[in-house]
Amino acid sequence: MYGYIKKCIDDGKIVIDPLTDEKQIQPSSIDMRIGDEFKVFRVIRKPFIDPKDDDDIASYMESLTVEDGEAFIIHPNEFALATTYEYVKVPDDLVARVEGRSSMGRLGVTMHVTAGYIDPGFEGKITLEISNIGAMPVALYPGQRVCQLVFETMTTPADKPYGHPDRNSKYMGQKSPESSRIKDDYELNK
């Protein structure tokens, strides 16, 4: 798979921008680095988050950018959103999954809680759903390898890949951590 991934990158079929070190290409995956923008939950005295109310969702989240050489500290039981440093394009005949690196997991830090699946045709920075399930705070440094994209070949290209006009591709082209856009789900707009 290493040779296939390398060929797909060289041919422009898979885009990882920037890919600054070929050591990021693993036997069946590509190591991804964390960016410098984060979204964290603020503690607000409201009884619940309303997924139909975009303003309500936004009011719970605070954005911050980590300066060069500084770290983002994720505390135990804390949740944050970030993105990969790399901008990614997945072709219509491949699927990717975000998997945490074992080295991060051994510190108690997970890189995706539920949304580890990257649709064929997706393009943008990958959102990371970071949780610290360990007992100690952990420093995360922008540019640090924290997860990997694992690729799987489909037998045929997707008929309606992510970004297709008939799909509700809410996060296509994202370049920073995005709060949930669940209010745009068709079942909540009836």
Number of strands: 11
Number of domains: 1
The CATH H-level superfamily is Deoxyuridine triphosphatase (dUTPase)
User: Distance between termini?
Assistant: 44 Å
- Assign a percent range to the helix content: 10-25%
Tell me about the biggest sheet? 9 strands, antiparallel
Supply the number of helical segments: 3
**The CATH topology, please?**
Deoxyuridine 5'-Triphosphate Nucleotidohydrolase, Chain A
CA radius of gyration: 17 Å
Report the sheet-strand fraction. 35-45%
Written as H for each helix and E for each strand, in order along the chain, the element string is HEEHEEEEHEEEEE
Task: State the CATH class.
Answer: Mainly Beta
Poorly predicted runs of 5 or more residues: none
Structure class: mainly beta
Which word captures the global form? globular
Overall mean pLDDT: 87
Q: Please identify, by name, the CATH architecture.
A: Distorted Sandwich
